[in-house]
Write a structure and sequence with these properties.
- By secondary structure, this protein is an alpha+beta fold.
- The chain has 2 domains: 207 residues, Aminopeptidase (3-Layer(aba) Sandwich), CATH 3.40.630; 171 residues, Aminopeptidase, CATH 3.40.630.
- 33% of the residues lie in helices and 26% in strands.
- It has a 12-stranded mixed sheet, with helices on both faces.
- Helix 3 packs across helix 4.
- The chain is elongated and about 90 Å long.
């Protein structure tokens, strides 16, 4: 009989890295989210549960463990014909779709996740996602290295406001802006007393969401579209955002600035604060007061409060009709929709479909001639992601 093997400091077992797929959403999602890059820490169990409640689907979750410690949790739902084995990361379009992974997850973790994913699906959609996203970019790089085909289509440019720079620049807003705002406030007040309200989690659940829905039902999104992209109405995304307040951690991230004229809500600006980042999810106003710029008056006040809270960067999301740059926002990373196809026949088919997938998005002047887009070369920094209401073209992309 051979002598027993004794482990010494020179003879240690290699750490165990394994990926396991579970039915439903895993409770380990919260464990991973708490160790994710700061801007991704809203990707909690209840975030995905709210998406399933609002949009449907049956989830499975792939959890990667390193020596028993969860380092990645990828929930997915299937779509399309069952034999095709197509899947997508669930969630809401705003601010972005992603899965949580521990900050600094290494290549072995990515490989384990990809191997687990290949056992479950032929293709995975992740998006919208930012070029340089701290989680998606290194995961996509690992996928390419393992023979996965990665298709991308351009959605829009993002716009970011650096509040730290604004604060360092001295007085803000400028005196001329303050003067104009006071002029508009004076005339707006002729319609009724102005009431500036700032609501958070519990107050939103107790009536704040209903007030924002009332504004949306009078806004351009109700009169010029089918209303499905409204954030807080029952016919829009209201079920998702209202459900989030069931998680105290997520509820504490949600806040809205509201302007009422008399007793009627006239404008709102809804944000989600995650660490030093603020995602500007939605803002709208009652067009009856458009002449006096109620939305502009409100978001200046809201941004000043954000500075006081220590917010460093505001993500204004996709596209700009002009007002974002007037405030001081600058163009940020591109927003893309990604499709990953596992090695073998799915990847071969993906190469043939690359041009079709790209044409289904919006024109991208940033794309390189090799068909790989710019996401591969972007740095894996903890960037912010698209957060404002999507243009109609983005809504169309989301339905493909």
């Amino acid at each position: 009989m051979p002598p027993p093997l004794l482990l010494t400091s020179r003879h240690r077992l290699l750490p165990t890295m394994r990926a396991t797929a579970f039915d439903g959403l895993s409770s380990l999602i919260d464990v991973v989210a708490e160790a994710a890059p700061v801007g991704h820490r809203f990707l909690r169990y209840h975030w995905y549960a709210s998406a399933l409640l609002a949009y449907g689907g049956r989830a499975r979750t792939i959890v990667v463990e390193d020596d028993g410690e969860a380092i990645a949790a990828l929930p997915f739902i299937r779509f399309g014909p069952e034999p095709a084995a197509l899947a997508t990361v669930p969630g809401c379009y705003w601010p972005f779709r992603c899965f949580p992974a521990r900050q600094g997850i290494n290549e072995r973790g990515h490989v384990a996740l990809l191997d687990g994913l290949a056992r479950e699906v032929n293709a995975l959609r992740i998006g919208p996602s930012y070029d340089g996203d701290a989680i998606v970019t290194p995961f996509v790089a690992a996928a390419r290295a393992r023979g996965w085909a990665v298709l991308d289509r351009f959605v829009a440019d993002s716009y970011l406001l650096d509040l730290a720079a604004v604060r360092a620049g001295g007085a803000w807003p400028r005196p001329s802006t303050i003067k104009k705002n006071r002029f508009h406030e004076k005339h707006l007040a002729s319609h009724g007393a102005l009431d500036w309200r700032f609501l958070e989690g519990a107050a939103l659940a107790a009536g704040g969401f209903d007030q924002m829905a009332a504004v949306e039902e009078k806004s351009w999104i109700a009169t010029s579209t089918d209303g499905r992209d409204a954030k807080f109405t029952r016919g829009g995304h209201g079920t998702f955002w209202r459900s989030l307040t069931g998680d105290p951690v997520l509820a504490a991230m949600l806040r809205t600035a509201m302007l009422a004229v008399g007793d009627a809500p006239a404008a709102f600006s809804f944000d989600m604060d995650v660490g030093p980042f603020s995602y500007a999810i939605a803002n709208s106003y009652d067009p009856a007061f458009a002449k006096h710029s109620p939305g502009k008056l409100l978001y200046y006040r809201n941004l000043m409060r954000a500075i006081d809270r220590g917010i460093q960067t505001v993500d204004w999301g996709a596209g700009d009709s002009g007002y974002k740059r007037v405030i001081g926002a600058r163009k940020g990373p591109a927003i893309r929709d990604l499709l990953l196809l596992r090695p073998g026949m799915p990847a071969i088919l993906g190469q043939a479909l690359r041009a079709l997938w790209r044409r289904s998005g919006n024109p991208d002047i940033r794309a390189d001639p090799q068909g790989e887009g710019s996401s591969e070369s972007s740095s894996a920094s903890d960037t912010i992601n698209p957060a404002s209401p999507a243009p109609a073209s983005m809504a169309s992309i989301n339905n493909l």
